Amino acid sequence: MATSPRLRNALTLFSARDCVVCHRVRLVLAAKGVSYELVPVDPTSPPEDLVDLNPYHSVPTLVDRDLVLYAASVVSEYLDERYPHPPLMPVDPLSRARLRLAMLRLEHDWVPHVQAIQHGTKAQADAGRKRLKELLLASLPLFKASKFFLNPEMSLADCAIAPIIWRLPALGVQLPKEAKLIEDYGNRIFRNPAYLRSLTPEEKSLRDLPQ
Questions:
Q1: Which member of 11, 13, 16, 19 is catalytic?
Q2: Residues 113 and 158 in one domain
């Protein structure tokens, strides 16, 4: 357990400066309007506090007094329950299950391609761009179904998807005209002041904010 007093007395998030899963958690915190201490982390050289707290030395890692949580999905759901307003999950079990399944597919199918583009070889990056584009286009009916992703209000699923959409230009993923509604979906979220608060300086440089 952390010995640093600041870790015991403040909500603390260990986060990389440009990381799609860390951005997901920062967006949840921003949507909730929660104050916290951000500890920027170089994943290749994690700080001693993080090494002591998390056996995987991974980010995002959240410290809430004596509680230490890691994995973006676990942290996001905890924050939604810990800070219930505004709620970021629907009330009924069926809708919640659908959103959880969508988020699981994002984690397993979309995020690895983002990471391959950012950190892989040229061949891995090229394959990642192709596959991520295919996944986005296959999901067009889901973006058409509601104002937000499978839900009339912003949810944890949007917090997971929006950081991916934000990075598309920087990732070199260009969508065709028929996929404009995906960009429109992203812009609805990007215009929210909470979204701006979720961005690190490095992430702000990845694209221009919509007017």
A1: 19
A2: yes
